[in-house]
Amino acid sequence: MKSWIRFRLAHGRIGFGVLENHRVTEYEGDMFGDAVPSANVLSVDDVTLLNPCVPTKVVALWNNFRALSEKLGKVAPSHPLFLIKPSTSVIGPGEPIQRPQTYAGKIAYEGELAIVIGKRCRNVPVDEANDYIFGYTCINDVTAAELLNEDPNFAQWCRSKGFDTFSCIGPAIQRDFDWRNAHVVTRLDNVERQNYSLSDMIFSPAEQVSRISHDMTLLPGDVIAIGTSIGIGSIKDGSTVEVSIEGIGVLSNTLSSGA
Amino acid sequence: MKSWIRFRLAHGRIGFGVLENHRVTEYEGDMFGDAVPSANVLSVDDVTLLNPCVPTKVVALWNNFRALSEKLGKVAPSHPLFLIKPSTSVIGPGEPIQRPQTYAGKIAYEGELAIVIGKRCRNVPVDEANDYIFGYTCINDVTAAELLNEDPNFAQWCRSKGFDTFSCIGPAIQRDFDWRNAHVVTRLDNVERQNYSLSDMIFSPAEQVSRISHDMTLLPGDVIAIGTSIGIGSIKDGSTVEVSIEGIGVLSNTLSSGA
C-alpha cells in the first residue's frame, strides 16, 4: 500500500512524501502540484505523522447515509447538506482531542471517510469531478453535542463542531481507493461502535465535489467529511477513538481533559 | 482619517499601507506584525483597493441586534450565534458580487460592521479582548436567501452565505473607531435601506472576540461580521449596495448576473 503523508522529523523539520511498507520517500515541491521524490528515504518509525494535508476549510456533510437517515426518520436531501469547520480545527493522527475550556458536556465521535481535493475546483460537472479528487483519508468529525441545540432558534453546527482539535484527519492519503467496497469501522477503547458500508452513501464523492464546487471554490488540500452513519456516541475523557478504513489506515486520537 | 488598506498597482503588484487624505504610504512587512513604512508614497487614484485583509475565515453572527431580534420575535442569545464563511467568499470594494451559476432566486444584502483580528487569539478574557482587535471595517454579508430553508431538517447557513464573492469587505480598516457612537447605513441604488446604531448590539466586539476565542482560535486577518439589524432586503441583478459607516468609509459592490 502506497500513500501520501506529512510528517515531522525529530529535530522539528516538517516534510511530506510517500509511505510504502514502513519506508518513507520524502518528496520536494507541492504535494498537489510539482512533487518530485528526493534522495531522502526514512523509516516510518523515525517520523511523527501529521495531518496529511492542511485544508483551508473542512466541509462536513450531514445526512449522507441511508441507514442513519432512516433511523432518524429524515428524508434524503436533494443537495449535500453541509457546515464548514475552520482550518484551526484540524489535527493529525495521535494528537490529543482537547476538551474545550468552557464545556463540560458530552463530546461525540463520528467516524467518516474524507475526500482530499487536489486541484482548485469551481462549477465542476459531475463527470469531471473525480479529476479534482487527490485521494481519500479518514476523519473523526468531533462534536460538542450539547451545544448544537442550546439555542432554540439557531442550530450551532459550526460552533459545536468547530473547536480546535475537533477535525482529526489521517493517517495517510490513499490515491487509489475503491470506496464502493470499503467499510468505515470506529472503535472506542477497542470496542467496535461503527461498522458501515460506504456503498450506503447518498451523494457519491464525485457528486459531492461537483455540487459543492457550485457552492464555493474548493482549494488543494481542502477536505470534505462525507458524513457518518449509525453508531455515533460519546467519548469519555481519556478514551481513544480509532477510525479505520481498509485500504487507507487507522486514525487514532485520545480525548484529553485538557487545560 | 488614517486607515489601513490593501491595494493593487496598475502593473499588478499587490501592496498594503496607510491611507490618509488621498495619499497612500506603502508599508513593508506584515500588516499585523512588523509593518514599517517604505519611501513609496502614492495617490489613492493610482491604486485599486482590495479587500483590506485576507481572512482564513469569516465568522458571521446571527441575531446580535435588539431591534431585529424583537422584530423577529426571538429571544436574545446567551452566546454569540455564528456560522463560518470560507476565505473564498471574500472580495473587496468595487468587485462584483456574482450570482451563483445554479441559483436564480433572491439574493439579500446585510450591511454590517466587521471586526478584524490582529493577533492569534484563543481563550481570551473579555477584559483583554480589545488588544486582539486590529481594527474595524464594513462588510456586506450576502445571502442566497431561498437556499437557507430549502431542506426542512437543516438550515443551510454556510451554503446560502458561503458562495464566492458573498463576503464583501472594505474599503479600509480603521484602528481608532468608536463603535458606540456610529451607525451602519446601507443604500441600495442610492436609496437608504438600513440605518441603525451600533450601540444596539447585544454582544459587544470585546465580548464577541472573547466568547468566540473560546470556541476556536482566531488568526490575524480573520473577520467577525458582527450581525445586522432591520432593513435587509434583496438585490436585483445590476443593483449596487453601499455599506457606509462614518469613520470607516463606504463599501460599494454591484450584483453581476455573472457567467
From TrEMBL, chains A, B:
Keyword Nucleotide-binding: no
InterPro entries in the record: Fumarylacetoacetase-like_C, Fumarylacetoacetase_C_sf, Rv2993c-like_N
Span of domain Rv2993c-like N-terminal: 4-52
Organism: Paraburkholderia madseniana
Database matches in SUPFAM superfamilies: FAH
Keyword Chloroplast: no
Domain Fumarylacetoacetase-like C-terminal: 57-255
Protein's UniProt name: Fumarylacetoacetate hydrolase family protein
GO-annotated molecular function: acetylpyruvate hydrolase activity; metal ion binding
Entry keyword set: Hydrolase, Metal-binding
